[in-house]
């Protein structure tokens, strides 16, 4: 175990002296964070070491947001715990750390989520968006979004969808990168690399059409990385939503795309059921629903292309290479099942 773990816990006083520390390993986690479950006299907590590229002001901003959710009685999020100096973001050995309350429950493990759990997940997401609308965010919170987008959120003005703009830029970049074949491809990803390029060529026209359509949105507080591993259940009820590291300001369609796409991919009837459940809590128009579908489709292909770049071109090292290859394979299998024109109808 990293000696920094016990050292950082000393900053939280005797109540958080660990009785047991367990590393939390997820085969779907590739963000670079490390998480431990801490058992102590005070109870259970999640100790997280943030990736070095995440700036301190963002971590502290996330903690302000979580405290705002505390005050709004959202109840499903982890809450940051202050050390003996009143700080929730601690620095040691060049890394930033946090200790948060532990959310009980387990993510959906089955291939086919039940209707009850699907409905509960979408209602919980809608509740988060509803609470998020009421949280005051100043123009100084630029770790969340540019000042102009924060202003638009405050005034209820429409802006071009930031998520769609990011996808356009990333697709253009990846298209340029992947046009050149890698000099060396490791044996375990050679077939995946070849098939990924085949799908890029097959779906390119449809992708450009989907990315080219304009979309104006009312900016909202969104999680941006809410997927099946980040929604916890106790029975059929949601007991927690974890990992707020990607939170930002964008369309609620971002979260719908990420969550519904991970729970019921390419299942139109269940997509409609998920949207119905969401609308039981919060109203959204059909334009937002279509944008969610577009973001799911375009995001899935872009993620597939990105894995080719990481593993076949950059040859990045991952703590669990096999899990990385499985993630790439699953994305590619999904993309391979789409019709060429139009996708996903």
Topology:
Elements: H1 3-9, E1 18-24, E2 34-40, E3 43-49, H2 56-71, E4 90-92, E5 95-101, H3 115-134, H4 147-155, E6 159-160, H5 162-178, H6 190-212, E7 216-217, E8 220-222, E9 231-234, E10 237-241, E11 248-250, H7 253-263, H8 268-279, H9 286-313, H10 321-336
Antiparallel strand pairs: 1-2, 2-3, 3-5, 4-5, 6-7, 8-11, 9-10
How would you describe the overall organization of this protein?
- It is built from ten helices and eleven strands.
- With 345 residues, the chain is an alpha+beta fold.
- It has helices at 3-9, 56-71, 115-134, 147-155, 162-178, 190-212, 253-263, 268-279, 286-313, 321-336, and strands at residues 18-24, 34-40, 43-49, 90-92, 95-101, 159-160, 216-217, 220-222, 231-234, 237-241, 248-250.
- Strands 1-2-3-5-4 form a five-stranded antiparallel β-sheet, with helices on one face. Strands 6-7 form a two-stranded antiparallel sheet. Strands 8-11 form a two-stranded antiparallel ribbon.
- 46% of the residues lie in helices and 14% in strands.
- Helix 5 packs across helix 6, helix 5 runs parallel beside helix 9 and helix 6 (190-212) runs antiparallel to helix 9 (286-313).
- The protein starts with a helix and ends in a 9-residue tail after the last helix.
- The mean pLDDT is 92.
- It folds into two domains: 3-101, Phosphorylase Kinase, domain 1 (2-Layer Sandwich); 115-336, Alpha-Beta Complex (Aminoglycoside 3'-phosphotransferase, Chain: A, domain 2), CATH 3.90.1200.
- The protein is globular.
- Strand 2 (34-40) and strand 3 (43-49) form a beta hairpin.
